[in-house]
């Protein structure tokens, strides 16, 4: 009998290992619990190898609620009006600054409207636009709900914000904005005042454009149907032929393909299984890399969230991925979230096309701590310090790998963005209504840099891009490039070579929403060795403005998947 039981256990173990090796995931908790009850230790297919690293270096000076990369070593940081330690010459608290990653210096950027929970994107001419916001703050800062703020990036430290306090048609708190295929901005959603959960009374279910394309904001029924979890809706520009004007729009658990020019729903997509993914049950999303060898297949990934508005509820441990090549057959393919439930995650597409997930909490929801009597109750806890990497090329069940651990909790109002040297800038965490200096739920000013494995590896030396489109003085000004053309690039690198390239738009980051973030692979042709370790090549730009919106992007050239030491700033038109 003892022998038979041993054989049975061994047979079951072999069967389980076989399933896992073939990426068959046991998806039912009851099965897992039964196996655990029999004494089995269940391992999912997530790798435990930590191959990246976090480094704490520098401070942001103000809470980093919103960030955008504007130049090679410059990041514009925007907070809200609160008791940040830095002050303007006129005595007001600083709301925005330009941060230099090379020396931790900060150039203060005066503002006059409240930018709390605003949105942003770059126009086709390279202008960074921040819009929306919140209520008036004393006599120092006017209401920002209808505000438009313009910043033209510069290298000579003279650029400042310009403001139009009433530039929007509607009051917008927690809106989304993305760059369209014509270089204009699509502005959608939000509420007309700050709130914990959106309601019919304060909902702003409309869209508008900048520059204006209509006399007033227009109703979008989708943002009525998705109440109450529809703030900061997820929006992606759909790739496709010239003449197509489609957007993917997601809120709560639902999504549509929408024609912005015709103001028409093209297709209502299936509801994503699992929890809501929108504030305060905040998840995150990326349009997965668009690659020419896959006909620029459009695939959207959405991860995390929470199942209910409850500060004690565990975060959602699932991701949905949908192939939008055919709207009629599109359906969600579900995966676990690297074995870690997470609310308020950030998703950063890396230089090699993989996606880094980091920040957020294992329990609760987005939002400020709330008072219960004299006690402040955090809305989220159990900080998730472990990062995970998602490789979209791998089969289902083996796409996630656990990576390096941070030592800094990053709760509500945390951010992360790729920077041109291939690392990831990480900052923020401001889960209290005003600046708090101590404790786990304090206002966090420390900056971290996450170095992916391609930065740390030593097998393949990182190259240097020495010329793009005949310009050798790269990253002084953005270099003009045109769609569907061959761009001459010269790269210096030692060792064996397998080149690839991509245009990446880093986007505008706030509240786990990476507005306009984009990765488009570029064909590399006609590679020639012209000197010792020096190669010329033609990098083919994306075919049209639906693949990547016109304006500022970064050209990354990789060798064996390892990016050159810095990307090059380009202006796509």
TrEMBL record:
What is one Pfam family matched by this protein?
GO-like_E_set
Output the Gene3D superfamilies linked to this UniProt entry. Answer: Galactose oxidase/kelch, beta-propeller, Immunoglobulins
Q: Hey, what's the signal peptide range on this chain?
A: 1-27
Q: Which UniProt keywords apply?
A: Signal
Keyword Lyase present in the record's keywords: the answer is no
Name of the protein: Glyoxal oxidase N-terminal domain-containing protein
* InterPro entries the record matches: Gal_Oxase/kelch_b-propeller, Gal_Oxidase_central_sf, Glyoxal_oxidase_N, GO-like_E_set, Ig-like_fold, Ig_E-set
Q: Residues in domain Glyoxal oxidase N-terminal?
A: 94-454
Which residues are in the Galactose oxidase-like Early set domain? Answer: 481-566
């Amino acid at each position: 009998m003892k022998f038979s039981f041993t054989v049975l256990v061994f047979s079951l173990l072999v069967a389980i290992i076989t399933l896992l090796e073939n990426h068959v995931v046991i998806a039912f908790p009851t099965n897992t619990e039964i196996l655990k009850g029999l004494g089995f230790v269940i391992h999912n297919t997530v790798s435990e190898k930590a191959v990246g690293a976090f480094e704490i270096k520098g401070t942001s000076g103000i809470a980093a609620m919103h960030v955008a990369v504007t130049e090679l070593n410059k990041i514009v940081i925007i907070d809200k009006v609160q008791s940040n330690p830095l002050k303007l010459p006129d005595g007001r608290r600083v709301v925005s600054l330009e941060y230099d990653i090379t020396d931790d210096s900060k150039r203060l950027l005066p503002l006059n409207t409240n930018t709390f929970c605003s949105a942003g994107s770059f126009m086709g001419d390279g202008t960074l636009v921040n819009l929306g916001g919140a209520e008036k703050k004393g006599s120092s800062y006017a209401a920002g709900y209808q505000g438009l703020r313009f910043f033209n990036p510069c290298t000579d430290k003279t650029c400042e914000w310009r403001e139009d306090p009433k530039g929007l048609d509607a009051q917008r708190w927690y809106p989304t904005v993305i760059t369209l295929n014509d270089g204009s901005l699509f502005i959608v959603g939000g509420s007309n005042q700050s709130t914990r959960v959106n309601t019919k009374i304060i909902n702003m279910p409309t869209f508008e454009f900048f520059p204006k394309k209509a006399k007033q904001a227009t109703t979008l029924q989708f943002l009525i149907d998705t109440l109450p979890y529809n703030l900061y809706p997820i929006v992606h520009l759909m790739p496709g032929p010239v003449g197509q004007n489609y957007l993917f729009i997601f809120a709560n658990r639902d999504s549509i393909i929408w024609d912005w020019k015709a103001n028409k729903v093209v297709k209502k997509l299936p509801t994503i299984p699992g929890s809501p993914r929108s504030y305060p049950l905040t998840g995150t999303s990326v349009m997965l890399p668009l690659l020419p060898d896959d006909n620029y297949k459009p695939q959207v990934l959405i991860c995390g969230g929470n199942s209910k508005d409850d500060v004690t509820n565990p975060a959602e441990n699932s991701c949905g991925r949908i192939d939008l090549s055919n709207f009629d057959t599109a359906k969600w393919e579900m995966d676990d979230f690297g074995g870690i439930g997470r609310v308020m995650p950030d998703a950063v597409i890396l230089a090699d096309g993989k996606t880094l997930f980091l920040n957020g909490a294992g329990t609760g929801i987005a939002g400020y701590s709330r008072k219960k009597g004299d006690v402040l109750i955090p809305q989220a806890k159990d900080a998730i310090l472990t990062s995970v990497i998602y490789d979209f090329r791998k089969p289902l069940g083996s796409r996630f790998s656990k990576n390096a651990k941070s030592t800094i909790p990053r709760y509500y109002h945390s951010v992360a963005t790729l920077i041109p040297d291939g690392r990831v800038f990480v900052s923020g965490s401001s889960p209290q209504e005003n600046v708090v200096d101590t404790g786990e739920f304090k206002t966090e000013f420390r900056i971290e840099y996450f170095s992916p494995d391609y930065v740390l590896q030593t097998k393949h030396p990182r190259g240097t891009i020495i010329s793009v489109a005949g310009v050798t003085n790269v990253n002084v000004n953005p270099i003009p490039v045109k769609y569907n053309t061959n761009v001459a690039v010269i790269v210096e690198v030692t060792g064996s070579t397998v080149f690839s390239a991509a245009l990446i738009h880093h986007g505008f980051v706030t509240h786990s929403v990476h507005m306009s973030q984009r990765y488009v692979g570029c064909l590399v042709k006609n590679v020639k060795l012209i000197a010792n370790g020096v190669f010329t090549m033609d990098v083919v730009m994306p075919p049209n403005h639906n693949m990547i919106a016109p304006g500022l992007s970064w050209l990354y050239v990789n060798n064996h998947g390892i990016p050159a030491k810095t990307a090059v700033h380009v202006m796509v038109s």
